[in-house]
Queue: 4 jobs
Job 1
Amino acid sequence: MEGELRPMDAEQLREYGHQMVDFIADYYKTIENFPVLSQVEPGYLHKLLPDSAPNQPEALQNVLDDVRVKILPGVTHWQSPNYFAYYPSNSSVAGFLGEMLSAGINMIGFSWITSPAATELEMIVLDWLGKMLKLPEEFLSSGQGGGVIQGTASEAVLVVLLAARDKVLTRVGKDSLKKLVVYGSDQTHSALQKACQIAGVHLDNCRLLKTDSSKNYALSPDILCDAISQDMSNGLIPFFLCATVGTTSSATVDPLLALGKIAKKYGMWFHVDAAYAGSACICPEYRCYIDGVEEADSFNMNAHKWFLTNFDCSALWVKDRNALIQSLSTNPEFLKNKASQANMVVDYKDWQIPLGRRFRSLKLWMVLRLYGVANLQRYIRNHINLAKYFEGLVTGDSRFEVVAPRLFSLVCFRLLPPDNDENHGNKLNHDLLDAANSTGKIFISHTVLSGKYILRFAVGAPLTEERHVTAAWKVLQDEASALLGSL
């Protein structure tokens, strides 16, 4: 049929691709006009779209019109300069171009032979990034370890937990699974608990050790040692420790060197989750926050959080790649080939959960090449400076307090309850969060620290400037005034 969209036609791709790029570019030009947090009600889209797919093809323009009118109102705009919730999930021109190229080539690079460039580029760019972070040479591909791109930090902690589990069970016997114990703090990402569930480690043996404000919510080596001693006296087997650089609640940094030495003493696998704050460590002045990484068995950071690399791209390095391979490798007949059988190459299918994998290294490669290290450092520093600016605004208003030390670009703060009525403080801050987000002008999120409901202001969206931070603070002040005035 004349004009019908064919599965893959170069000239149609050119025509439709231009339309799509124009649509996306216009979206970014107008992104500040949208409510940051979607204001729709659950089930809204069911009322706007038909209940079955069209029998005949529709025009792209009609689809884009529906995106504009029906889809975008239901989008929470993570790339908005007024987005300050959770942690950032960066997009960039370079990341988008790399994603587009990956989608265009559309190869499935599970083993070297399926597309040699995909495997080798991934090894190269993760070596580049590892050197930018000044990771120990054991984490680079020239040694026994190396890097691999996972989808998320949740996948990264799962695969290293599986490797650690199988490594210890080889030593103590597979019937000892019920005795294995995992350690982290109560600030560790919930992905650790999910990894335990998947790996068959009983949740009763997942120790999330208590932290408090006296150590800025970092994991205490003394408390860890006490927990390990208690477990060993009960016949249990400590085997995995997860430390965090930049916790979700308050961006706390655990003491890596001390924790690493404890892990080594007891023969435990030591994993460092730097999903958020790892990006900052490419700046020499923030590299100190991963001092002690030399004691780790694995290290992870999300390039898709704060490193201008479109989701998903989670970089994981291990010192012993054979531990991953022995735990995750399969070798069915239909995947056998000369290069793999001769152990001449890396097959990333054996470093991850799924078989299939996208050409994700392209976007990271493009980010590194099109921005360069100096510009990436400048980008990180700018967000940290904006967070310092917001911190100053908070401390300048006696109605508010900063709750935890600001290390990177996250500020944890709260509105003080009148008459120091802490019973009312949690509701007051909950109401402030709802009121601010309901304006559509900003989006922030919350956490709970020491039983107190805390507001989180995370700077990191690619388009955020000082004027956006200033405007966000005015929204918070205005809504706080309204709440306090109604008491």
Note: The CA atoms of residues 305 and 485 lie 38 Å apart.
Job 2
Amino acid sequence: MSTTASIQIPGRAVEASSGTARQASFSTSPTATFTSPSSSFPGSLANRQKQRQEKTLQPFETQNIKILLLENVNQSGRDILTGQGYQVEFHKSSLAEAELIEKIRDVHVIGIRSKTKLSEKVLKEAKNLLVIGCFCIGTNQVDLEFAASSGIAVFNSPFANSRSVAELVICEIITLARQLGDRSNEMHKGTWNKVSNKCWEIRGKTLGIVGYGHIGSQLSVLAEAMGMNVIYYDVVNLMALGTAHQVPTLEALLNQADFVTLHVPELPETKNLISAPQFEQMKEGSYLINASRGTVVDIPALINASRAGKIAGAALDVYPGEPGGNGDYFTNDLNGWEEELRSLKNIILTPHIGGSTEEAQRAIGVEVADALVRYINQGSTLASVNMPECNLRSLTLDESKHVRVIYIHKNVPGVLRKVNEVLMNFNVDKQITDSRGEVAYLMADVSDVQISDIKEIHDGLDGLSSRILVRVLY
């Protein structure tokens, strides 16, 4: 593949990548503020600190940064990105693959939720893409390895909607125990059916949590406050909250729990984690809740367990195949068993709404948008899910001739020596590097750099055989 580069006019950022020139321009990074009653005096400590803090990088024009936001990303995130001066294109739904490929060719940033699939096929067309923002917990919809090998960082929001999901599960536990879904449907049809048979209080019952992470641990506290006994299973040893306790195996949890709730990632190891053998291990008349990933539960096995009376009810918020948008799409054309599933008694079916609260979406919007801004403006990879985590302190007002060099490269021997040879005629104030698998990330702040020197730095790094992506911010 050919290699091209673009050096922009002063006040812009310089970038290049393998095969295609990547041009982008950047804005001033967010700054801290300091105020006090004496801050109006020029020589005050407050003013000296303010002068050191306010200037991070020389002002960058940002009108050329193009961002594509899909799936109704919350207004809080959109406001942060537009506030930086970026060009933001917003869509309420996901896009068909052909349209997505067409759109992604020109953008520097894409923001998605769970429906958009950024496969290798799609990402190969993203010639200018610098960073992906997943405005959700999961990142399994992105080919993380290919993104990293292309110099594309990925950020998500791993716990901003944890409370919303935990509250939904508590709601479903009570709804299943009291058969509220069936009673409500009957009333809507005009049928009065006042019964207490096989309707239970949840106080004193045992909740088994599979996966004791951000959501599982919050759920543990809520359930215990409502009088439930809590046990949990996780592949690692984790400290229990309250009086909950960890059990050694999934089988032990299934044998003891009245309610089983799943909070695990989508991995090869978790596919069909709950299938026919696991339903056999569950207590007679127990309940299953899945608000994690659709592939974790074998749905045909669940249908059989429900019909046989092995489980008394279930709540599903996620499915192996899900529609790309709202509408009458939850039919047999999707997975093949929808009609059978819908016919079951005491089954709660919701359309992947675990994190769909105003509070959660606002928090996710802010968290992911802030991460995108930090990466675009400063090169910080803190909290990236596919890049080494690197960060340098912000540049200051008295560092006006500083340049920040970002070098994403193959993790092979001898790279640091070659990078330092390129920078040997300049004063490197700060440098940090780290690797993750086959990809490494280097940041360096270089002082006393003239505009005429930037091309020399850029071209020197761009010519190295280990180069994946070069960015120079000044």
Note: The CA atoms of residues 77 and 365 lie 4 Å apart.
Job 3
Amino acid sequence: MEDAAAPGQTEGAPESRGAQSMAGALVERSPMPGGLALVSPYHTHRAGDPLDLVALAEQVQKADEFIRANATNKLTVIAEQIQHLQEQARKVLEDARRDADLHHVACNMVKKPGNIYYLYKRESGQQYFSIISPKEWGTSRPHDFLGAYKLQHDLSWTPYEDIEKQDAKINIMDKLLSQPHAVPKGPQSALKLHPLQ
């Protein structure tokens, strides 16, 4: 008569450290968790198909590959967001440089936000703003026309070809901000609306 397997050991085959490292960490066996035998140790700890360890190792490897692929996908999204932010930062800096240059252009009047100003260049190279458009000058235009810009209320400049698009954006923001529920209230007001019972 064969001796029964001792608690904590697999019946039929001793545990192998090589098998453990190949399959990953195995769960410790306890035939009586908390002092109570829940199932028969014979049925739960007997030696099974040796290919089970191979399948477990393959499953661990596949999980590692999925985790790596998932992390790579997330990092790719973050990299694309960083590139987008870099492009936005570059545009902000270019627009700021252009706005600063336009504020230093010669002008014999007080510039008022909301008005369109026309940029001309003299033969001497000096640039200046005028409120007279090239169309109003007609054939008697004295200097080269460089472009038209609208002075916005934040003192930025919008090129003439972008005025309609920029005004549409500003109108949308004004409508959103004028609605009473457009801006979410702080957490304190949310607590007042939903008091804890």
Note: The first strand starts at residue 116 and ends at 121.
Job 4
Amino acid sequence: MGNSKTKLKEMFKKIFTWCYFKNLLLNPSQLLLVSLLIIVTELVLNILIVEKVPYTEIDWKAYMQECEGFLNGTLDYSKLRGDTGPLVYPAGFVYIYSFLYLITNQGENIKLAQYIFIGIYLLQLTLVFRIYLKAKKVPPYVLILVILTSYRIHSIYVLRLFNDPIAVLLLYVSLNFFLESKWFLGSLFYSLGVSVKMNILLYAPALFFFYLVNLGLKLTLVQLLICGSVQVLLGLPFLISNPVSYIKGSFDIGRVFNHTWTVNYRFLDSEIFENKFFHLSLLLIHVLLLVVFIPMCVKYFQSYCRLRYVQKQVQPQIDAKNHEKKKKLKMETKLKTGKKINEKEVITKEQEEFLTSFEAMLKKSSRKSVKQPVSKPTETSDYSIDFDILTQLFILPMFIVNFIGVVCARSLHYQFYSWYFHSLPYILWSNNFSTIFRFLLLALVEMCWNTYPSTIFSSVTLHICHVAILYGVYKKMSNELKTVAKLD
């Protein structure tokens, strides 16, 4: 009992120190505890928002009206309408919101829907934190400040009930599966995200090359077939009924947005905003930016692929090394305690020489391959290489390609902030800006999205921030690749 109390006191002394607290806030590898605290705080905060802040009706009733038509047997997309106009989302949206229609008493129990969206938000946060924890890029205090203080994001998720958060949730599910090399599940959930809202296709250029680099052409075609099959199966009832109206309604890339709701182009006249040449110009800029960034993204993916291969080769050897070390420690413990040693547990001289040479090989391999030193074990610790950090080589290209799509969007409505909000800290900490300037950009972006209705100043400021962020990432990626090229 005395020893237990002493250890407990020592643990509390360690925790309640400035050094420990500082490390907890600044060290990206300590995000696990901080993320748990953020999620608990968000649970309480979102419940308070739902209970204290009035719900604002925007699209929920229209969603319910569109799904009511489907539940009544209408399969012709051109006849599925709500107060805000025709149904413009793919079939996955119809099924999900039809389910919400049924469990919320035909959409009347809005409070229940809000609590469901709290669950959606917390689940997405968990998936976001899992990526950030693996990448070890962003200090925990940044996520505390950014996530807990965003008025607009909390509004989008629990006060508006848009379909954007559901699409983004499915996207983050897929990203987590891709990080585990679970290709089928990753493709499945990616396509499910697209089936809720078409904006998830903004990730498609990066994902295509990620497939190609990791899997080769044949298996890439298999993954594309999975993605396409999901869309066909979900849309099958509508495709059979009226294929033209379904494809035109759910995947209408030529749809003209209402200038009234734009966040990013308030400074343009409505005539210019709706002009086809303006839309084509934005599309051209989008393509040009992809042409600039995709080659860099491919190099990141190639490094990711090579180092994952190294992991597959080295990890079993590390495990074997740790297993032999445990056997050796067990033998030494028995020697100290005077217990009889099983002859099979004794390490031979040849085995000991192998372990010594293998240790040297691991250290050499780690320096060349992953730039993460093999941790020198203490008497009780194990050898390890932190391969999770390779996440950086996958997630930045995915985030930046989506960000390019946001920058070049024909119009951004307020709910579209959810498309890239949770990736912004990662993108900003992937450039060489000072911490103060990063926070300034985050604050300005948040200010622009909180300005309602949008103004010329807020729209222009948002574009300036987007361009600055994009340029910062371009410089960082290009400099890193030049450095790697010189080393090679």
Note: The CA atoms of residues 88 and 252 lie 7 Å apart.
